[in-house]
Amino acid sequence: MSAGAAVRAEARPVVALAGNPNTGKTSLFNRLTGSNARVGNYPGVTVEREVGAWRLASGLVDVVDVPGTYSLASRSSDEQVAVRAIFGLDGNARPHLAVVVVDATQLVRNLYFALQLVEAEVPVVVALNLMDVARAQGIAPDPGRVAALLGVPVVAVSATTGEGMDTLAAAVQDVLLDPRQGRALPGWRYPAALEQDLARLCPLAEGPAAERRALALWALLSVDETDELIDVPAPVRQEVAAIRAEAGRAGRDIDAEIIATRYAWLDAQAWASPPRPGARGSRSPWTAGSCTPGGAGSPSSR
Ligand SMILES: Nc1nc2c(ncn2[C@@H]2O[C@H](COP(=O)(O)OP(=O)(O)OP(=O)(O)O)[C@@H](O)[C@H]2O)c(=O)[nH]1
Ligand SMILES: [Mg+2]
Which of 182, 202, 230 is the last residue of a domain? Predict the structure, then answer.
């Protein structure tokens, strides 16, 4: 490859295909990129990093098949691979957007992962995959309704039948051109004590406020004395240990505070009911934690 071609290849936008295990990410990857790599039905996640070219109307993008994970929280180095790929850490190309591949037959459970990317301000397009199965079961979600509640584009697809590929390409192209279309304000608020914990950790992370906040949440959920994570800076480990010890003395359960808050929001949304006319979801601004000074996170800042 000539040097010029290498430069052009590097300049392609990067699209991460991410989501829970077994939602059809590799099947979708193969369909979008024309790869004929075999997709097995075996348990376990994709571990090798697969990158392929996907042709949109605007040109080629690089698609990365990210290992499946239930959460951005990760106590194992395997799960950490997904976190690094999505945030573009440790030598990974930083994705311009993530297509969150959701099993449409497991909507609410799968959306927990999408919520975390929204919270991190990663531009998101949700692909409701396995729509052929969901339809056959009579439980197919309405993409418009899910989009209205989540605040990001949602497309119905089937990696098996090829349904929705053009719509997905158009949605991805729109978000690449205007990332604000793939961002939304989280509608949930954490307890005040947790906001104080986040404010202690955010200064130890780098990047935009929402990303530092997401990394702080990741650290609080992931770092402990038994994790298998690699390259977590010592100051982060020390601060998380101190915060956890103080929370324990105060009778708080940090994991529950974070996870229950997100699930409470997910469970409160009427995913299966018609949206209120004109509603864009019950979203509210970020709380004024130290990661979001001066109203960062308000709609006008996106
Ligand atoms: N009917 C149907 N089956 C699908 C669809 N997409 C994927 N599958 C099947 O679902 C299974 C899992 O698909 P994969 O593409 O391996 O899922 P994955 O998300 O890459 O899985 P991990 O890498 O393990 O997280 C395979 O048996 C696929 O053939 C779809 O849209 N419809
Ligand atoms: Mg896979």
Answer: 182
Do 291 and 162 lie in one domain? The reply is: no
Whether 230 is covered by a domain: the verdict is: yes
Q: How far is CA 108 from CA 187, 269, 270, in A?
A: 15, 9, 10
Could you report the per-residue pLDDT of 235-272, keeping only the tens digit for each?
Answer: 999 999 999 999 999 999 999 999 999 999 999 999 98
Domain that holds residue 175: 3-182
* Residue pLDDT, tens place only, 188-233: 999 999 999 999 999 998 888 888 898 899 899 989 888 777 778 8
Rounded distance from Cα 261 to ligand 2 centre (Å): 29
From atom 6 of ligand 1, which residue's Cα is the shortest distance away? Answer: 24
Query: How many Å lie between the centroid of ligand 1 and the Cα of residue 144?
Result: 23
Q: Which atom of ligand 1 is nearest to the CA of 40?
A: 16
CATH code of residue 66: 3.40.50.300
- Out of 17, 20, 22, give the residue to mutate to test ligand 1, the one with the largest number of ligand atoms within 8 Å of its CB: 22
279 and 238 both lie in a single domain: yes
Structure tokens at 170: 């158009």
64 & 128 share domain:
yes
Q: What is the token pair recorded at 254?
A: 């940090």
